[in-house]
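Reopening: Methyltransferase still failing for me.
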Amino acid sequence: MTRIVAGAAGGRTIAVPPRGTRPTSDRVREALFSRLDHAGAVDGARVLDLYAGSGALGLEAASRGAREVVLVESGRAAAQVCRRNAATLGLSGVRVAPEPVLTHLRRPPGEAVDLALLDPPYDLDEPGLAAVLDALTPHLARHAVVVVERSSRTAEPTWPDGLVRTDERRYGETLLWFAEPRAGTAPS
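Support: Ran it again with your exact input. Result attached.
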């Protein structure tokens, strides 16, 4: 069972796709969002949840006051679960983009993103992840926070020139990498 940890929808459960996803544990989401809330990175933010799965990360951000959340998920069944979860929770400003992450990111940037949450499949190789991070960079606000969730058995992501790693946190088998735009590379 997966639940929203805190905020307007705190304590409510959400559905998880029957297969093909690996939802972030409640414990890891709680630790992640405690840190993000403390840094003022969620309330009023424009959020991208890439490889959304059930939408748990993006919906947690919406529950905690994010202004706009886009759940990007290419799996048809998972995208449908994201839509149902968003509708069931009744959180405003949430939309689902049912397409591959790179397709979404290769469009011209719109309003800058304040928080990007990436929980790619563990089998996404490092060159694939590097391509996604590179494509993400032009979409980021100057003060943006990027969080990449990976298995603790994988190497550090290859950060593009526009991003700099700021921290990492380990929670059992889960490793969270934090990054931000390098000074002078983000639009606003």
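The chain has a mean pLDDT of 92. If you still see a failure, please send the error message rather than a screenshot.
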